[in-house]
Structure formats: structure tokens, C-alpha cells
Specification:
Distance between the termini: 95 Å
Radius of gyration: 42 Å
Strand content: 15-25%
Number of domains: 2
Shape: elongated
Low-confidence stretches: 1-54, 84-97, 99-103, 287-302
Mean pLDDT: 76
Largest sheet: 8 strands, mixed
Structural class: alpha+beta
Helix content: 25-40%
Order of helices and strands: EEEHHEEEHHEHEHEEEH
Strand order of the largest sheet: 6-5-4-7-8-10-9-11
Length: 302
């Protein structure tokens, strides 16, 4: 739609025109551009119905007409620009960058159902999904590659190898691991798309004696009733996978305890009660110091 601005120039009474070529009543139309295309162009035409011919503007009128053209062009540009700048912005949702990335990083897999422990006379399955683990003892370099489960059946011989591999490294004592610990480990790797990757084992089974010694040393966060004592826990790293990512993979399973150790960059996983924590050595020292002060105060008061 074109809007037109008309300027009516009527000769004042008693005034004379310098040229007889002009009509007494002259109309000039300044065409206003279409706003959508934002390409303003202004046309000044004489009204042919009244004048019957085209004519140039007098010198005295040109500054006024040019000023009006500038105003019209500026108004058109302003109207075209205002909607873009005044357009309401969409409400932004603040998501944690890492969590947003993780949502696309994890493979959609879940924990397998609880497996079966066959009797000695039972035949072991040949067909079915094979659950394989590649483990490395971080401090000794000892390695184990084993298929511990086929379908819904755990392989007894493989479990024996795992139990021996995950023995207490301080006194060589062996215990029987809860097989669900291996399911947690395998599912974590599957979620990360790392089923062929090896897992560095930092700590596995601990006897009560070893656990007590670690607690007394103050160098670790060994719990009084640690799941390591129950042969249900592992402290691990996976080469090429950051500790926070490994932690989140474990948390997504909701299958037991998950501890994150940012200073040492490893993750604790177990099949005990569902819980989580982050260990900070400095915070732990302050907590121990405060507890010691409270005990000392009670002693002095007593």
C-alpha cells in the first residue's frame, strides 16, 4: 500500500508567476515507499489531472521538498528498524554445560537384570550377550581380560579370576565379590561407549585390617564400614574419560554408592546403599580438627 503526501501550492492573491508555463493550482505528490522492502524511493510528480504536464520545481521550493524527503526516508528506516530491536527475547534457560553435553554423550543402556549363579552340574550358556571386562591394577600393571557373564548367567570360573585379581594387595587375601559390582562397571562403560576400554583399578577388596590401617594413616577417605570390606566396591579410572564424566555415568545408574575424588581424579563405585559424595581433603581436615576440638572441650569441662 502506497501512502502519498500532497503539497498544495496555491498562488496567493495578487501574486504573479514569473513563467506562464505554471498552473495556478499545482499539486506535488511525494510517494512514500512500501515499508516491508525497506528500499525507500521518493517520486515527485506533478498532478497531470490539474497541470496536464510535468514541470521542474522552482528553486525556492526545492529545499523544503528535499527536507520533507529526508524526513520521510528517515521515518521509513526507523519504522523498519524498531520491530527488530523491540522484538521480545525468548526466555533463556540456564543449563549446566557439562550436564547438557552428558545428555547426548551417554548411550541409552540400563543395568541388566540380576544374573544367575549356576550349580557345578549346570551347563553354561553358549549363546547370548557377552559381558566382558578388561581390568588393570594401576600400581602393579597386572591385567585381566575376562567374559564374566553370558546372557543371564554368570560364569563361575570367570568370577574366580576376578576375585583373585581384585584381592587385597596388602596381604594377598581373596574374597568373593558381589557380581553386581561387575554389572555396574560394565554398564558404565556401555553408557560411555567404552566397552572395549580397560579400567584402571586403584583399590578393590580390603580386609578389615587393611581398612583400619588406611583410616589411621589419614591419607585416604576410608570409611569405618567400607563397602570395600564387603567386596562390593572399586576405586577406578578409565583412560580417556574424565573423572566427572565417569562419576555422572555411575550416578545415572542409581545402583549404589558413588564417590568423586577431584584431587586424585578417580571415582568410587559400589553396590551398597544408594548415596553420593565428593571428597575434599581440606574440608575433611577441618572437620576432623573441629571434632577433635569438641572432644577436647568436653574432656576439659569434665
Amino acid at each position: 500500500m502506497t501512502h502519498s503526501l500532497y503539497l498544495n501550492l496555491t498562488r496567493p492573491s495578487g501574486a504573479r508567476l514569473r513563467s506562464s508555463g505554471y498552473n495556478r493550482n499545482m499539486q506535488m505528490r511525494i510517494a512514500k515507499p512500501h515499508l516491508p522492502d525497506c528500499n525507500p524511493s521518493t517520486h515527485i510528480n506533478a498532478n497531470r489531472s490539474t497541470a496536464g504536464l510535468s514541470f521542474p520545481l522552482p528553486e525556492s521550493l526545492r529545499p523544503s521538498v528535499i527536507s520533507r524527503r529526508i524526513v520521510v526516508v528517515a521515518a521509513a528506516l526507523l519504522i523498519a528498524a524498531v520491530p527488530a530491536s523491540a522484538r521480545p527475547r525468548k526466555a533463556s534457560t540456564h543449563k549446566h554445560t557439562r550436564l547438557h553435553t552428558l545428555a547426548h554423550a551417554f548411550v541409552n543402556v540400563g543395568m541388566p537384570v540380576a544374573g544367575l549363579l549356576p550349580d557345578e552340574d549346570d551347563e553354561l550358556p553358549i549363546e547370548g550377550q557377552k559381558y566382558e571386562l578388561k581390568l588393570v591394577r594401576a600400581y602393579t600393571g597386572e591385567a585381566l581380560n575376562v567374559v564374566y557373564r553370558i546372557g543371564d548367567t554368570y560364569i563361575p570360573d570367570a568370577l574366580d579370576k576376578l576375585n583373585s585379581f581384585l584381592r587385597d594387595s596388602h596381604n594377598e587375601e581373596v574374597s568373593e565379590y558381589d557380581p553386581r559390582t561387575f554389572d555396574v562397571l560394565h554398564t558404565m562403560l556401555a553408557k560411555l561407549g567404552k566397552t572395549n576400554s580397560s579400567v584402571d583399578v586403584l583399590s578393590a577388596y580390603r580386609t578389615q585390617e587393611t581398612n583400619d590401617a588406611l583410616r589411621e594413616s589419614g591419607t585416604t577417605n576410608a570409611a569405618l564400614h567400607s563397602q570395600h570390606i564387603e567386596a562390593k566396591a572399586l576405586d577406578i579410572r578409565v583412560p580417556g574419560v574424565s573423572a566427572p564424566l565417569l562419576r555422572d555415568a555411575a550416578l545415572s545408574l542409581d545402583a549404589g554408592g558413588v564417590g568423586y575424588y577431584p584431587r586424585s581424579q578417580f571415582v568410587h563405585v559400589d553396590v551398597g546403599p544408594v548415596r553420593q559424595w565428593t571428597y575434599s581433603p581440606h574440608k575433611a581436615k577441618r572437620t576432623r580438627h573441629a571434632a577433635h576440638s569438641r572432644r577436647a572441650g568436653r574432656t576439659r569441662r569434665g
